[in-house]
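Title: Prediction job returns without error message
Component: structure pipeline
Severity: low
Priority: P3
Assignee: unassigned

Description:
Job completed but the reporter wants confirmation the result is attached to the right record. Sequence as submitted:
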Amino acid sequence: MILRSALIALLLLTTMGQAQAYSYAAAGKEPLIDAREQLLTAASEGQDASAVLASLTEELAYLEQHHKVVLQAPLAEAIKAKDAAATATLLNRAYKAEIERRLEGAGQNLGDYQTAKVLVVKSKRFLDLILPSLSEGDRKAADGALAKVLDAIGNPGVFGVGAKTADPEAFKAAEQALMAVLAPL
């Protein structure tokens, strides 16, 4: 009976640890990504998007303050004017700022592989939305630069086997290359 209880406790502890590890690396909610289709639909069909924009106030205000992009008023104006192209351009500008934000965070956390990796992977979600608006050459350059960013964060290996230390210089160079491709946005 004691052995059975110990096995159940061990199983519960093991399962709980796996759930925590999964939830830490889960993609999570990205309000700017989640609202994309609603905003583009509202712009193309002339619908009221004030509720959607209000739900993005915190994210957009942060980007405006810390990444020096103006988004809230132009987005509202573009949607009101039924200008889907301008709305898409402004969303790409917001996504570019989000990529910059995530990569800055990853660069500051190069000593913490898991945090850096999550931030780089989240930046990839934003990049994937921007890629269709880039030329083929710029798409390849952006994807290649992000792959180099991911490689530069290193890898802890499995129990240390195959471990690779982070390379801050390679990280910075790849980050700059990516942001140079996205600069025209």
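Comment from assignee: result matches the submitted record. The two ends are 66 Å apart (CA to CA).
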